[in-house]
Amino acid sequence: MIAKIANWFDERVGWKVIWEAIFLRKIPKVNWFYTLGSATLFTAVNQAVTGILLTIYYVPTPDHAYDSVQYITTQIPMGWLIRGLHHWGASAMVVLTVLHMLRVILLGAYKYPREVTWFTGVFLLLVVIGFGFTGYLLPWDQKAYWGSTVGTQIAGAAPVIGDWILRVMRGGPDLSAVTLARFFGVHIWVLPASLILLVAIHMYLIIKIGISAVPKKEELA
Amino acid sequence: MNEKEKKAYLEQYKKDKEKGVPFFPDILFKDAIVSLIIFLGLIAVAYFIGAPLEERANPSDTTYTPKPEWYFLFIFQLLKYFPGELEVVAVVVIPTLAIILLFLLPFLDLSAKRHFWNRPWITVLVVSSVAGVLFLTVQSIRETPPPVEIAQGDPIATLYVENCASCHGGTINVPEGTNLHDVIAQGNHEGMPAWSADITSDDIDALAGFILSPGGNALFNELCRTCHEPSELVASDPIELKAALDEGRAYAPHAEVTIPDWNEVITPQKRTALLNFLIAPDGQRLFATNCAQCHGRSISFAGNRDELRDLISQGGLHLEMPPWRETLDNNQISTLAEYVTNPTATGNGSELFAQYCASCHGERIPTMDDYAAALEIIATGGAHQTMPVWGEVLTSEQLDALVNFTMDAARGAPLELGQGLFAENCAICHGDFGEGGPNPTRPDDVIAPISTSEYLKTRDDHTLFQIIAQGQPNFGMSPFGSAFGGPLDDDQVNTLVVFIRSWEANPPVELPPEVDARSVKLSADEVYTQLCAQCHGTDGLGLIGPSLRDPDFRAANTPQDIFETISRGHEATPMIRWGDLLGEDTIQDLTDFILGLEISDAGVQPQATPGFSSFAEDVMPIFEAKCAPCHGSMGGWDSESYEAVMTTGRNAPTVIPSDIENSILAQKITGTQTAGKIMPPGGKMTNNEIQIVLDWIVAGAPDN
Ligand code: HEM
Ligand code: HEM
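A: This is the predicted complex of the input protein with protoporphyrin IX containing FE.
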């Protein structure tokens, strides 16, 4: 019965080819460090799911941001869990992304033919850092406000265009409602869109090229 | 990698793959285990620690030590090792290099080798980078709050380090034109507190000097500190300071002490640095201490920057000294002449000097050697070097700052002017701080605040200008721009825009106030007093607008005319289409109210109009604010007392009671006199003020 249904769908959707290409592809014998990438992917999904749930109640204005976050944490059933997962997931994602990158570097996995995979990876790293930077302001508590004040100020120290950068980030000379709106917009629209696009390319290349084998100490030539 | 190596790699990879396992279930299982462990870990921290939430953001609480998210701490820490101008290295150079290196990595490492032991350079680089970041992070956690270096025995540097360095680092780049003293004293919106509560004004001056001229501070410590506290010398009279440096040992107060001849010890560059420290090149402060006593709050100046710079630096023949023989008797003049030739000689000279000369000469006595020459100069006055040659006194940084400020002030930008205009014209409806309130023109309406950051962020200067100049007839705001029949010229409207814009940095109103909309219908005389009286006078005898009690007016207008004028307004005057706001009933009531006013021709030559009732309370304050800064006891017309107002002046009397046309004062303030400029030179007084003075003259210029 199940096989029948599966075939019915396969005739129309062609999922078997995809299943074989993605799940039944052969992978060289690899070690546990090769799980770091998928662990990063998992935290990304975790961030997306909890992040979307957070946006339901979160209000990105200086008057209400703090209250809404407090409301999420204390009033909403499982709100503490959602916010806790998002908060700590952010740190985990940063750490895992970096560890994953270190594994790629140390095992030479950025070399031929995986250079493009590597480039998308570097962009992913920047996106993740962007998430952490913009997300930090959102709860609008003391650490958020002052951390972001200093953070944007640091970015504003660049020569020539520093002042311009500062103004673009803050939406004016000071940290204000505009800054919060901008950070929020970047955090939940711009960066997620970039993340999805980059991860898609990253994954496509990984599947297409295959995951590198663990290099041996005695290498040819 | 060359083609051969590439091929070899692909072949080897194919073999490895064949020996491998399928992704599902083998690999996926491993991945799932790791992800699950991470997920459980996250739930555990979420449960046991939770996501922290500190106090609500408080932009004015600067005691808070800012810290970024932990994974950015290493950059924060790095900054500490690259203070001042090197900051760029930590902020821009290193991160950019790191990112570029990452992108280029596949091209930098082209060998076919992949194992880390076989690529020692990359491995060492990566391991040391990771170690470096870890070290910086740990260091940053251990070191917060950042340690601050206090240079021993340097009080101003100590002040700086204790109060400013934690946020501003080692140096501050002050944008040109900043009024540093005010910024320090009043704080700003970014969370900088108003230091005036904790630091004395002298110390703030010293801090400003320190920030703008750190080298000068060092020199001060080296040379002057043995005898002087910084607060004692900063922002003192620049002429005096310069004399102390120039005259070296000959400088009188230095005669008793054994000090080096400053001319020999201090190079010209150092001298500049020192002077910049002592009198910070901060335009508004320089103006306040050096110019304001003669020029008042602002100077009108139509030329360009360079001309102004020349004028200030050359000083000299700028103000005319009055011929004192017209005011003083021979005795007094010779006393003064003696006094300036020998300040210690007579007792009475210093009193005379304080009374007649100090308003322009300040404390500093223009000493002369020749008694006869002094006598002659004082008696005849005239082209007399009153304005110091600032070019010799001020450093070029100070001159620039002063010129910039004066140019701005001449353009009418100073906030004080705007504040005054706002209080006179806008505050009635918008409140003192733009907080709004019930709309006097529409019973059920509330005027929303115009000082919230939302309001200001969403309107640019041009829009604000338009709103003020053209009014918002639909909401009951009449036009204020003179082009639309209002009382303000374009400069004044601009000044108001600048003033309103100044709220944006620190909006006085964060949230719209909860105002109870009044739903009571106003009676005709209430509407009259709140709306019409502004222009037509509380008694209907006219102010800006015509008298409504004038017999000619009544004869020329039928009740229907009056009704229609109210409903339709007069184009290009502040008389807007009230019909858009007030109902027909109200306008009918108003018409009846106006017709009910007793006919009187008093309004043609208004006698006691609302502005003026007492010389001392209404007229004198205007003189004090607008005229006294220049028209003091120094000669010419003196505005400082009733006696003086009525009797002094080169063409005295300046005021002819009840005769506006021939009173020079009236001609001067209304601009009808063709000889010389309109007074005050900084810009016409407000209509209201002019009206009060005129009314006072019309009323017979009484002293009451
Ligand atoms: C959101 C961030 C990222 C996600 C979700 C992600 C995901 C993955 C996954 C699932 C793999 C499969 C192999 C493995 O798990 O190790 C992989 C491989 C790879 N990743 Fe990432 N990655 C991310 C960031 C990065 C970064 C920052 C870099 C490098 C700068 C990078 C470079 C690579 C490369 C070169 C491979 C191929 C490795 C091989 O074939 O052995 N990735 N990535
Ligand atoms: C992809 C979709 C995402 C959405 C829709 C989203 C949404 C949100 C929202 C609404 C908040 C405010 C709630 C709060 O502060 O507790 C928030 C906070 C935050 N987000 Fe995200 N987010 C997403 C992804 C990410 C990712 C990938 C990261 C990290 C790499 C991240 C890092 C943060 C951080 C650090 C905070 C501050 C949490 C706190 O300290 O409470 N977010 N996010």
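The longest helix of chain B spans residues 23-48. Residues A 44, 47-48, 51-52, 54-55, 58, 69, 83, 86-87, 90, 93-94, 128, 131-132, 135-136, 138-139, 187-188, 192; B 51 surround protoporphyrin IX containing FE (ligand 2) (CB under 6 Å).
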